[in-house]
Write a structure and sequence with these properties.
By secondary structure, the protein is α+β, with helices and mostly antiparallel strands. The protein has 18 helices and twelve strands.
Amino acid sequence: MIPDVSEALSWLEKHPEALNGIGRGIERETLRVQPNGHLSTQGHPQALGSALTHEWIITDFAESLMEFVTPVDRDIRHLLAFLRDIHRHVSRSIGDERLWPFSMPCIIREPQDITLAQYGSSNIGRMKTVYREGLKHRYGSLMQVISGLHYNFSLPETFWQARLGIENSTQGKQQISAGYLQLIRNYYRFGWIIPYLFGASPAICESFLPQGKDSLPLESNGKGTWWLPYATSLRLSDLGYTNKSQSGLGMTFNSLDGYVTALKKAIKTPSEEYAQMGEFDKNGKRIQLNTNVLQIENELYAPIRPKRVIRSGEAPSEALSRGGIEYIEVRSLDVNPFTPIGINEEQVRFLDMFLIWCALAEAPEMSAEALACAKDNWNRVVTEGRKPGLELSDGCSETQYPLKQIAGQIFDGLKRIAVVMDSQHADNAYQQVCEDLLQSVDNPQLTYSGRILDTMQQQGIATAGRLLAEEYRQMLAAEPLEVLTDAQLEEQALASVAAQQAIEAADTLDFESYLAGRKG
């Protein structure tokens, strides 16, 4: 089941310098909550600037759902210190509110309590809010306030030059894109190891129980918390952040042109279901941007995406067609509740090694059917990944192998990559991560989900989250900044407000004409 990577690993061991300069970025989502653990009803804090144009502190679906974005960084400790500085600053800027430490949300009694993110009066700001209005009507507000963490990763140009024999990233954009797509196909086949190790949402609050819950083998503590006994990440399951209506898109990752074509088709393909909702409600208020399968390309839900930095007014698919794949975005990480910033150094180092392994391992092309079979393995891991003796399928065949065996074989390759990585830094940090995480393969109770479930069962999600949020609030508020300064943070907030005002002043079209122009 595991591809033969011995030759590729031997190549890497002869070219260790090819990995110097890995680019990393983090996007961490978190809900603002009241001291009692209930959802904040306050708007985005003015002291933090404009959520439309701030470089580091924005909002996602709701006013209360914050997102912290780091610049691209090539130093792991600096990256995490930057992210922690954002958390420190925000914790001192939101009064007595706290940042929710789990992926699955706090108690939300009524979905109407969730206020959609607001971005001002400009056309682009109004479009972002209407897009969220469409998400609310299509999938429900509760699903949209589930938090996650995105890890952006790029291999240095020197890697592709040594591996592919290209002169530079411009001349070799097709080969580099093919290399990243190989990584993505392997990620679909074996990326379930990420929720196995780091999934931290084995339980949900009662307010998130869907209709038909009786058909699920959920257990309860009688205090508003429900769980699956061997689950790792209910956030990634059908109980969490999913969209079955997109399963028929037939999207594969065999060529960049094929991916871009499928993405463009999805935003132009009418949906009978969404057409019945209409674009406007009975009072004439616009409730979605359009009635297509996807309103915009970002509506595509996926555990990993090929990406390129976009230019002003450019769609993600246009950027990919123009310059090829520049980096990939890993989207299957739960918020890590064992750290106040949602991710730790151990995870970053593991992701580095695993994504390098995915880029090196052979990855045959995948049909839509093969992709669906790979997703079945993911579903098995997120709902029962810690089950003793759990087996996963080899593609679409009936042959199955123990999860423990497959994970062990993956780690055999990761350990060789760790030696190469450590050789460039004169330490054993990557090798130590392998050694530590291998214990979780042997003992599922050491996984993040295994460790947090006991706390959730005993205290309940609401109490556990409230206590942890308060602990982290006090910790972060008391810590001095490390790499940013108060002056930089204030300057960024003021600059973001000025940028939003400039966008609003520059608008010349009415909103409907603006939308019509974008459709064209």
